Each structure stands twice: as C-alpha cells, then as structure tokens.
Amino acid sequence: MSAVLDDDVPVALPEHIPVLPLRDTVTYPDTLTPLAVGQDRSIQLVNDVLSGDRMLVMLGSKDPDLDTPGPDQLHTVGVAGVVARMLKVPDGSLRILVQAGQRVRIDEWVGEEPYLMAKVSELPDEVEEGPELTALMRNVQQTFTHIIEEVPYLPEELQMAVANLEDPSALAHLIAGALRIKVEEKQALLEETDVSKRLRRLSEVLARELDIVAIGSKIQSQVMSEMESSQREYVLRQQLKAIQEELGEKDPAEAEMDDLRSQLAELALPEDVRKQTDRELSRLEKLPQAAAEHGVIRTYLEWIASLPWGKRTEDNLDLAHAREVLDEDHYDITKVKDRILEFLAVRKLMGGRGRDPSGSSIMCFVGPPGVGKTSLGKSIARAMGRKFERISAGGVRDEAEIRGHRRTYIGAMPGTIIRALRDAGAQNPLFMIDEIDKMGADYRGDPASAMLEVLDPEQNSSFRDHYLDVPFDLSGVLFITTANTLDTIPPPLRDRMEIIQLAGYTEEEKLQIAKRYLVPRQIERSGLKRSQVAFTDAGLKAIISSYTREAGVRSLEREIASACRKVALSVALGTHERKVSVTAPKVRELLGRARFHSDMKRRTAEPGVATGLAWTPVGGDVLFIEATAMPGKGKLTITGQLGDVMKESAQAALSYVRGHADLPDDWFATHDLHVHVPAGAIPKDGPSAGITMATALMSLVTGQPVRDDVAMTGELTLTGQVLPIGGLKEKALAAQRAGVRRILAPSRNEADLDDIPEALRKNLEFVWVEEIGDVFDAALVNGRPGYARPRPRI
User: Fold this and answer.
1) What reaction does this catalyse (predicted)?
2) How many CA atoms lie within 13 A of 787 on its CB side?
C-alpha cells in the first residue's frame, strides 16, 4: 500500500491511519484538495499528523448535517492523502491543502477517540485496454469540452488539460471533481473501480448536464430577444418567469397579489376604508417588485387585511353565569362584581347594543399590588365570552406606542391598540390596560394624552392610528384599566374613567383566598397531590400574620409555594411517608423564624412615641412617630425623609402643644425638640399624621406614655380641630396587621365605616374624634393633660 507525496514518490500506508470526515465534499485520487477544518477533533487530528508522517484518509459523510459523524455515518471508500500545507486562521479553525493519493477501503475501525482511526487497504483501478475504453474517453472529452464552452464556472484551461490526458482513470477523476453534481453521484464515481464503467457512468452525467445547459441557453435566447440588454434586473425576472413557464408554475408575485386582493375583497370594510384600500392596491399593482415603496404598500395592505373588520363575538349576558364565574375566580370584592353585573344587565335589557348608558363603560381598578386587578379583568372576559388582550402601559413614554408610526418612517408599524385588535381577532374584545398610572412623558410625546381618544366613549368610534390613517371603530371594545394610585394619572384621563377602588384584604379574607385559590394552585404547581399535603387554618393564619405584611396576597402565595416546595423535596428524596399537615408549628419548621412581630408595646413604652396610620400606593402602613427634647434654644429638627406637607404638620402640632401645654414660659425657649419618623429610608408625606405628631409631643412634655393598643390618623389645625383624611379602609387593614385594636379617626370619616368589612369592624374599636383634646383623652395613659403636670425629665 502506498500514497503519493508532492514529488510523486510512493509512501507506504501505515497499519493504522487517522480518518478525516468530509461534509458535502468528495476527494479524488491524484488531486490537490483545499479543506477547511473547524471541528475540535479534526483540528487535533491535523495537528497530530503534521507532527508525524502527515498522512490521513478522507471519507465522505452520509449525512452532511452531522457535525461529528461516527463510523456508521461514513462511507467505506475514500482517498488517502498527505497534508502538504496548513494555515491557521484567527477564528481558531485551520485551512489545509491535501495531496490526494490512492483510493482506499476501510477494513476495520480501530478507534474513535480522540478522533477516528482505521485500518485500510488500497482499492486499485481495474483497467481493461481496448477500443471501447478509447471510445469512452473520446466521448467524455468531447462532451465535457461542449459543457466548458457553455458553462461560465468552468475555466477554459480545463479544456486543454482534458484534451492532453491519456490516463482514463485520471481523466475521470479530473472531470468528476470539476462538475457541480450531487455528492452521492461523486461518491458513486469514486467507489467504482472498473474504469470503463466509471467512464460510462460519467458519460451519462455529462449528457444530462449538457441537456440542462442547452435548456438554459434556450431560455436565455428567448428572454434576450424580448428585453433590452440595459435592464439587467428585469432580464433576471424574465428569466425566472421563463423558467416557471417551462416548469408549469405560476409567478409568485402574481399569486401573492391575487391572494392579497381576494383577502381584501372578503373584508366588510367601511366605504372610506374601501376607497383607501383600493387606491393603495392599484398603486401596488403598478409598481415593480424591486421598488422601495412596493414593500411599504404591501405591508400596509397586509395590516388592513389582518384586522377584524366587522368580526364580533357574541356576549354571554347570562347574569347567573357571570356571577358564578366571578365568584369562582375571586373571593369577596362584592362592589366590583355588582358593577360588572350592572353593566351586563343594562346590555341585556338593551338587546346587547351600544355602551352602558348609565355612565362610562371605561372602568379603572385602583388598588395596591396583589389584590387581583388584572386577574379580575380575565374573569370578566371569561364571564362575557369575550376575547381578552392585556396591554402593559407601565413605562411607555412614546406616543407612537399608542397611535403608531406614520408610514414615512422606516420600520413603521401600528400602535399597541391596533396590534392588540389584530391578535384578538374580534372588534369587541376586552382590553386590560395595566399600570396606566405609570405612563411617562418625554420629548417623544405624551402617551397619556394619546390615551384620551382611546378611552373616550364619545370619540373612540373613529379612532385613527397614524400608520393605518383610516378610522377604526373601538366603541365595541370593553376597556378596563388598572392603577396603584390616581395621583399620577392626568385629570383629563382620569375624568374619562369610572374609578373602582380595590382595597387590601383582611386576615379573614386572606385566609379564605388562600384556602380556595392559592393552596390548591401551589400544590398542583409543586407536583404534589392533595393526599400528600394539607394546610390547616391555624397554619395559614400563622403565615398571614407572621410572614407577610401586605395589602394583597402575592407574598402570601410565595410563602405557601415555599412551604409546598419543602414538602415536595421530602417527597422526591423519599423521606416522606405520610400526609404532611401544615400547622402553625410546622410553618415555623418549613419557613424558618417569623419575619414580623407586633412591637407596639416595646415601641410605645417610653413617653414621646405615638402610633400613626398612613396610606401608600401598596396599601396601608403603621408609622411610629418619635419626639425627644434636649437643652437648647428652641430649635425644631424633623427627620425621617419627610415631605413638605408632613413637615408643616409637625410645625402645626408643635405650635398647638406650645400654646396648650402647662409648662414654664421659657421651657420651649431653652429646649430643642427633635421629631423623627422611622423608617428613615422611606419617603413620607401627607397631612394625616398631624394628630399623631401632636400626641407624641404632648406625651413627651407631659411624661405620659401613649397607650400601646391605639393608632390614629387625622389632620390637625392650629385651633385643635381634627380634619378628615382618606384611605380609612387601607389604614384599618394596616392596623389589623400590626395588632392594633383601637383606631382614632376624624368624626367626619364615620361615613367611611360602610366600606370596611363587617368582620374587620367587629375586631376593631373606632373612636371618632372632633378635636385634639378627644385624641389626648383616648390616647394618653392618663387622658387629657391638666394644668399641674410636673416638668418632664430630659
């Protein structure tokens, strides 16, 4: 056995030789083959042979898609060769030049790591001299010469090389390597050892290629006789058309135009939209496909065709069904459910026509996170049988996100309203616009202003997107928006919506929500079964009171999920033997130490500390207002990252205390006061802490501690009047979570008691106060201070 080096000196093949797999390539004997090597094992193979005898075997792969084919995926006949040159490229791959030698056959695979190794034997040619062989050689040479004259990718030098070759085997190898034929045919020519049969098969391939060249020349002559030579692009398209006619196919451009025309004809378009569409379609038919505007107009018409013009879903106006769906998905929130039923009742009495005439049908759910605003929209859509689409308005700063971009811009597209209508596939879906209070405005426009038309029932029947530039009727869409706070919503936009407040949940409501919805859902998501884990009421109450402090139930669901995962781990490890009952002690075992404790007694044990109630966008909260005094010159220091309104409340509270406390005349002139509101890292503002600050200061100067079961809220005037505040329900919920049982609130807020659930009212005592003296009576340990109090200890 031998291979051939550059100087044609035969070299014996080793007993075991590395095998380099080839993809979409067949190498023939006695040829120079350039190869690109990128696989790690192939790179190692090349490096190893370069440090040795430079010899390898090149085998074609049966499946070109395989990156690292094994012995079973390779052909058994290949070519041995010697690596003549090697070049490393920057991407880590190699470029090699292989001098191919003798054809070989794989006798036995001897290794696969780190690359393929095999035992091979030579597969010499079988040459039978005679006139038939000579005739075959001449036929091959003549046919290939004709192909060279017609095909541009074959150089003319090949014609001279083929004419001078007298070795039939070398002739077959040279022509087969130059032709662009299938890899399978090239491999078959390589595996054929009988030179006469190889030349005969090569003659058949050349005859077929010559016919293809002749057909191409015919098509070229037909096209060139019809078109001017200067219009190269049009010539190419005519060539394609002639080829399609030869194959009996239809022009794709015409087929696409017919399809678009039929789609538009089937739509129930309004008259003005139909005129605009016909005008654009006429322009599109006149434009050549290569024109820049062709793609713009086609995309525009495709958007028109994709919209649900006149397509509507039937509303399910069965009130009993709606009530059942709403109760199934959400616990309590009776006011919201009643509003939805009222909307459906009106539509039912009107026969399903028009909007709700009793008021705006644009509802805005306002409440802290986790109270079910978004999921409530899904339930309403399910109850009504409408398509549901959610649009996130949070962080949107570009007006074009709502109204779309004009078609003059590159990459223009419709706004989010039109895109959502396309996705819904109906002209009357339910749109849930989430976080509408978090839209911003900058130099690109004001998206909140763009929403004015969308959310106005009197205007959105002719909503005009900048991209479509035709009116689209949005009056059938039921819009529902959500927000955490109303303060950041512009007044004109807020005026177009019916505000429905969703406050936080009481402990009892959280318990029922956990039992009905959260626990079953998390047991299923954890891969558990009801027979493996159960949560007791005591266990859920322990999670609610000791591991969460929120208005909604998201944190509660996360803690339940954490407990379920702990149980799932024990089941997966096989340490679970019986059903796990998550009781209060088990909760501490699964979730660790409690995160929240009631520290009212500890915080209010010293004089000068009062407990206030605050409202935040994420629900109510409890504030501890601390006051202290020290020798000084009458300076007031206020800390805790307070806003201007809250600082002014502290000033008003101090003025009242200075005017009514029974202290020496020079006491305030010789002492500095410091009012602090933890936590200092959280910004705070608002007037409702006025009576709390006055109570803390009065507690300080009289030496009386504030009762540890009392929290208060109310705005204080300089005359001692207590003015009403907002968010009483959220503040009452915060008081319940903190373990407070007595709430001092302005008497003018007594009407807000109807918004507080009955179960919460039973567990809380509300004391209605009209002036600050009533607050001191109910809050200070010894009641309203008299006029003979001892001087406080500083």
Assistant:
1) Hydrolysis of proteins in presence of ATP
2) 2
Q: Is 714 helix (H, G, I), strand (E, B) or coil?
A: coil
Quick one: 96 exposed, middle or buried, by C-beta within 10 A (0-12, 13-18, 19+)? buried
Same domain, yes or no: 583 and 605: no
- The residue-averaged pLDDT of 597-602 equals 68
619 is in an annotated binding site: no
Residue positions counted in the chain: 794
Q: Is the pLDDT of residue 793 over 50?
A: no
State the average pLDDT for the chain.
83
372 marked as binding residue: yes
| CA distance linking residue 507 with residue 545, whole number of Å | 8
Q: Which among 228, 225, 180, 232 has a CA at the least distance from the CA of 206?
A: 180
Q: Is 373 annotated as a binding residue?
A: yes
Higher pLDDT, 523 or 220: 523
> Does residue 237 belong to any structural domain of this protein?
no
Strand, helix or coil for residue 629? strand
| Inter-residue contact 535 to 562 (CB < 8 Å) | no
Same domain, 420 and 511: no
CATH number for position 521: 1.10.8.60
Q: Does a structural domain hold residue 408?
A: yes
Query: Which CATH number goes with the domain that contains 704?
Result: 3.30.230.10
Of 169, 361, 688, 699, which residue is the catalytic one? Answer: 688
Q: Would you say 467 and 406 are in contact if contact means Cβ atoms under 8 Å apart?
A: yes
Average pLDDT score over residue span 638-653:
89
579 counts as catalytic: no
Q: Considering the domain boundaries, does residue 733 fall inside one?
A: yes
What does DSSP assign to residue 518? I
pLDDT: which is higher, 237 or 397: 397
In a domain, 245, yes or no: no
Domain range for 265 is: 252-306
Residues pairing with 111 in the sheet? 117
Q: Could you count the other beta carbons within 10 Å of the beta carbon of residue 482?
A: 25
Provide the domain count of the chain: 6
Q: Same domain for 695 and 766?
A: yes
Domain CATH code at residue 116: 2.30.130.40
Tell which residue, 390, 368, 369, has the closest CA to residue 378: 390
Residues 110 and 195 in one domain: no
DSSP state of 250: P
Is pLDDT at 106 greater than 50 in this prediction?
yes
Taking the C-alpha atoms of residue 629 and residue 637, their distance in angstroms, rounded to an integer, is 10
The tokens describing 126, both together, are 């079988």
Using alpha carbons, list the distances in angstroms from residue 767 to 614, 622, 774. Answer: 17, 17, 9
* Residues 612/724, Cβ–Cβ less than 8 Å: no
The answer to whether residues 511 and 611 belong to one domain is no
3-state secondary structure of 124: coil
**CA–CA distances in Å: residue 201 to residues 131, 190, 196:** 17, 11, 9
pLDDT digits (tens, 9 = 90+) for 484-527: 888 888 888 888 888 888 877 878 888 888 998 899 999 999 88
Query: Residue 357 pLDDT more than 50?
Result: no
**Is 110 found in the same domain as 62?**
yes
Token representation of residue 592: 């660790």
Q: Is 727 annotated as a binding residue?
A: no
Query: Could you write out the DSSP letters of every residue in 139-180?
Result: HHHHHHHHHHHH-TTS-THHHHHHHH---HHHHHHHHHHHS-
| Co-location of 575 and 427 in the same domain | no
367 annotated as ligand-binding: yes
Report d(CA 655, CA 649) in Å as an integer.
10
Question: CA torsion sign, 327 to 332 to 338 to 339?
Answer: negative
Report the SS3 class of residue 295: helix
Decide if 84 contacts 97 (C-beta within 8 A): yes
pLDDT in tens, 371-383: 888 888 888 888 8
Q: What is the pTM of this model?
A: 0.61
Inter-residue contact 675 to 629 (CB < 8 Å): no
688 is an active site residue: yes
Sequence-distant (≥ 6) Cβ neighbours of residue 591 within 8 angstroms: 543, 547, 559, 562, 563
The annotation status of 374 as a binding-site residue, yes or no, is yes
Name the catalytic one among 510, 586, 684, 731: 731
CATH of the domain at 194: 1.20.58.1480
